[in-house]
Design brief:
By secondary structure, the protein is an alpha+beta fold. The chain is built from 15 helices and 16 strands. The strands form 3 sheets. Strands 5, 6, 7, 8, 9, 10, 11, 12, 13, 14, 15 and 16 form a 12-stranded mixed beta sheet that branches.
Length: 457
């Protein structure tokens, strides 16, 4: 620490550890190597040098934004235009603000990435910046081959997920009076630095995405970015080809609302595409499987679902707790959390005569926020005006819908008993199916061919 001020700009950025600052300095040296000046304070790098270093890892527009944001950083406090290149102090201060700064420091650089003027910017300029940022995250993760098993699939007939997630982030912005920027007429509103600072604080994905762009785009301080907290590892049974309804951006969005300890891994429990269009199969695969995400795509292209915070059980009572939520992915992204009005979080029933048979989340019998009927392929999402449990609107295109695809993903690490269950026959977990076999006098062909499973406890 004794030579903390030996390099230009070091004394302005105490947020970096010495080894981190050394890496920052090495990158600056590489970027400015075409400038041979004896006075290090005059050394700088050009946009061309930064583009050459980044290559195709980031879209050109985002590289230009980052470059402009850095060279517009004013270190003197006096009125002046942007510098010709990015100096070492500007580079270090910008990296410090974007990677380790608070909302105020991040908003300073974001504002300079959007506009060369010192004053407010139009809301539409922030909207365009947000789309560029989200698109750059998807781009760099694919370029660096760090999608962790997910894809960049675009849904047919639906707006690109980049635009959908960008719209969700932009919707978090509020004007000084507390009003949200809703409607096209709001795009001409002026947004000052305080508005952007509040937005960065309110929408943590903005700072996270900037961090991903710099860490993975510049290949800088890579060890300090834990991608597993952002994008879970995707696990599907070996040998099974499967394309999820979700793409990488929608997974990132839903995953960010899960309990922190559940975000690093998603394991496929059930897919109508792989396991068949059968409610009995659904029950057999998801019961006692731990916390999971249920996901539907209806015939009109709407994608939506819910997070079940504990294992599903077939029983006539409601289950779950207030960690459950409903969500929408397409045509818009949103999460709907518990209102406290009732405890109708989760419901799963099968084989009853007097009460509904199916899977539901929120609301009440025959009026669920999300319902999958035992007559597989049918469901409803009823909300007039919203679901009482989750305050969610109608998630499907039609109140009573038919769905094309259903997926259920276990989230987080599976317990030993859950892993053991996944290797059992559906007959082991569906007493009704066992009983039907016994009534008809048929034997279980697989009985005795497998090892007897150990007790869960």
């Amino acid at each position: 620490m004794g030579n903390a001020k030996s390099r230009s700009g070091q004394n302005t950025c105490s947020q970096f550890l010495p080894e981190e600052q050394a890496e920052i300095d090495r990158l600056f040296d590489a970027l400015s190597s075409d400038k041979h000046s004896s006075n290090t304070s005059l050394r700088s790098f050009s946009l061309k040098a930064l583009q050459s270093h980044v290559g195709e890892a980031l879209p050109l527009e985002m590289v230009t934004r980052l470059y402009d944001g850095m060279r517009r950083v004013n270190l003197t406090g006096t009125a002046m235009g942007p510098s010709e290149g990015v100096s070492q102090k500007q580079f270090t201060v910008s990296m410090s603000h974007l990677l380790k700064g608070n909302s105020e420091e991040k908003s300073l650089v974001i504002l300079k990435m959007i506009s060369a003027t010192e004053g407010p910017v139009k809301a539409r300029e922030i909207e365009k910046f947000t789309e560029d940022l989200v698109g750059s995250v998807a781009h760099v993760l694919e370029h660096r081959q760090e999608l962790r098993g997910w894809t960049q699939k675009k849904g047919p007939g639906s707006p690109p997920r980049v635009q959908v997630l960008a719209a969700q982030l932009f919707s978090e912005m509020k004007l000084p009076g507390g009003e949200k920027l809703l409607g096209p007429q709001r795009l001409d509103c002026d947004c000052d630095r305080a508005t952007i600072e509040d937005w960065v604080f309110r929408a943590p994905h903005v700072a996270t995405f900037l961090s991903v762009v710099i860490h993975r785009g510049f290949l800088l301080l890579g060890s300090s970015l834990d991608l597993s907290a952002l994008l879970p590892e995707r696990q599907v049974d070996q040998g099974r080809e499967f394309e999820s309804v979700l793409d990488v951006l929608s997974v990132i969005y839903v995953n960010s609302h899960l309990p922190r300890e559940r975000r690093h891994r998603w394991r496929l429990l059930f897919s109508s595409e792989l396991h068949g269009h059968s409610f009995a199969q659904l029950c057999g695969h998801i019961t006692h499987g731990g916390p999971c995400v249920v996901l539907l795509q209806d015939h009109d292209g709407h994608v939506f679902g819910g997070f079940a915070s504990c294992s599903w059980e077939v029983k006539p009572q409601f289950q779950g707790d207030d960690k459950c939520f409903l969500f929408s992915i397409s045509p818009s992204m949103a999460v709907y959390t518990c209102t406290g009005y009732n405890d109708h979080y989760m419901y799963l029933n099968h084989g009853q005569q007097t009460i509904p048979n199916g899977l539901g989340m929120g609301g009440q019998h025959d009026y669920f926020g999300l319902w999958i009927d035992v007559d597989f392929g049918k469901g409803h999402s009823k909300a007039k005006p919203t679901c009482t449990t989750y305050n969610s609107p109608q998630l499907s295109a039609k109140e009573n819908f038919r769905f094309e695809k259903l997926e259920v993903w276990a989230v987080g690490d599976a317990s030993e008993s859950q892993l053991a269950k996944s290797s059992r026959s559906i007959l082991d977990v569906d007493p009704e199916a066992q009983a039907l076999l016994e009534i008809t006098g048929r034997s279980r062909q697989s009985q005795g061919l497998r090892e007897v499973p150990e007790d869960d406890d």
